[in-house]
Specification:
Elements lengths: L32 H13 E5 L7 H15 L10 E7 L4 E6 L2 H7 L6 E2 L2 E2 L1 E3 L6 H4 L32 E4 L7 H8 L5 E8 L6 E9 L5 H8 L3 E2 L2 E2 L1 E4 L12 H21 L5 E5 L10 H15 L5 E5 L16 E5 L2 H11 L3 E2 L2 E2 L1 E5 L1 H5 L5
Antiparallel strand pairs: 1-3, 1-6, 2-3, 4-5, 7-9, 7-12, 8-9, 10-11, 13-15, 13-18, 14-15, 16-17
Helix pairs in contact: 1-3, 6-7
Protein name: Splicing factor U2af large subunit
Family: Belongs to the splicing factor SR family.
Main location: nucleus
Length: 378
């Protein structure tokens, strides 16, 4: 050091704008807490925007997204613009838009398929987005209070069932109800939009549907898991509606495996009892121990008659009981409800499937009438 000067004091002619630093003054050489926070949350604040027209530039993208975020009520971090920075790759026609908050980046996910200079653009998470880390930083889904209609995004248009993440689901058995198709698709997560296409005159299903997931990251996972699965005498065709199927990324493989296992369970339920009959079979409702006591058994029978009678003309209730000798009895643990018509059985199945009974979700399927008539409850 120059004699008589303290470390950090000014040396004439050398870095005049950098030194000295007064007490409490901002020091650019030291990582500030705010900068550290911004770096830690950056992956969750960035948004990928694909399919940009050649005329797009950083300024036009920033202005546009600031305007639409304000219009839909997506600016949750206070007054001012939501966009901090924009980087554009002109060769590949995409941009990374950095938002000022994690919540605002999640709100921007609702803009997928919005028209930018006349062209629909993809709004996605970037490949470095880490859902598990992001979950601790803020909301990962768009707010349900966004005014998407203000920018022309409504269910059934660009923000609902249109855009690059719309999924085509073909090869559905004609007897599948809207609730059954929804239940199958929602194995992967909640839907933003869903439409089972029906004949205008008869109201019957045409055997295909369209959907869009709220979390666009599961689009390819759902397509890969469902495509090619056999449902009755049909084979499902599931792919993006406007392009060829894409393969899930390596980090999605575990999710894909779990989803495929879930689909197989759903498939078993549908194949066994998808075709409507007058008989509904309920499982996970009663245990063998509950059926041993005569008084308790009668109480269960009465409860079932009252509940099942709400949905139609109930003809008969059968609840197989364990044999006192301990001999095996088919159907123990199941409840069989016979109705006078299919309308009553369908309403009962729809209403009771998935309901919690004793902490367990009830599984309701149609049961073959000939087996029920023969007292074959296996």
């Amino acid at each position: 050091y120059i004699a008589g000067q303290l470390p950090g004091s000014s040396i004439p002619g050398m870095f005049p704008n950098m030194l000295p630093f007064a007490v409490g003054q901002f020091n650019p050489l030291v990582m500030q807490p705010q900068a550290m926070t911004q770096q830690a949350t950056r992956h969750a604040r960035r948004v990928y925007v694909g399919g940009l027209p050649p005329s797009a530039n950083e300024q036009s993208v920033a202005i546009y997204f600031n305007q639409v975020m304000a219009a839909i009520g997506g600016n949750t971090a206070g007054p001012g613009d939501a966009v901090l920075n924009v980087y554009i790759n002109h060769d590949k026609k995409f941009a990374f838009v950095e938002m000022r908050s994690v919540e605002e980046a999640s709100n921007a996910m609702a803009l997928d398929g919005i028209l930018f200079e006349g062209a629909p653009v993809k709004v996605r998470r970037p490949t470095d987005y880490n859902p598990s880390l992001a979950a601790a930083l803020g909301p990962s889904q768009p707010s349900s209070n966004l005014n998407l209609a203000a920018v022309g995004l409504t269910p059934g248009s660009a923000g609902g069932l249109e855009g690059p993440d719309r999924i085509f689901v073909g090869g559905l058995p004609y007897y599948f109800t809207e609730a059954q198709v929804r239940e199958l698709l929602e194995s992967f997560g909640p839907l933003r939009g869903f439409d089972l296409v029906k004949d205008r005159e008869t109201g019957n299903s045409k055997g295909y549907a369209f959907c869009v997931y709220q979390d666009l990251n599961v689009t390819d996972i759902a397509c890969a898991a469902l495509n090619g699965i056999k449902m009755g005498d049909k084979t499902l065709t599931v792919r993006r509606a406007n392009q060829g199927s894409a393969q899930p990324r390596p980090e999605q493989e575990n999710i894909l495996l779990q989803a495929q296992q879930q689909v197989q369970l759903q498939k078993l339920v549908y194949q066994v009892g998808a075709l409507p009959t007058k008989v509904v079979c309920l499982t996970q409702v009663v245990t063998a121990d509950e059926l041993k006591d005569d008084e308790e058994y009668e109480d269960i029978m009465e409860d079932m008659r009252l509940e099942a009678g709400k949905y139609g003309n109930l003809v008969k209730v059968v609840i197989p009981r364990p044999h006192p000798s301990g001999e095996p009895v088919s159907g123990v643990g199941k409840v069989f409800l016979e109705y006078a018509d299919v309308d009553g059985s369908t309403k009962a199945k729809t209403a009771m499937h998935g309901r919690k009974f004793g902490g367990n979700p009830v599984v309701a399927v149609f049961y073959p009438e000939n087996k029920f008539a023969d007292e074959d409850y296996d």
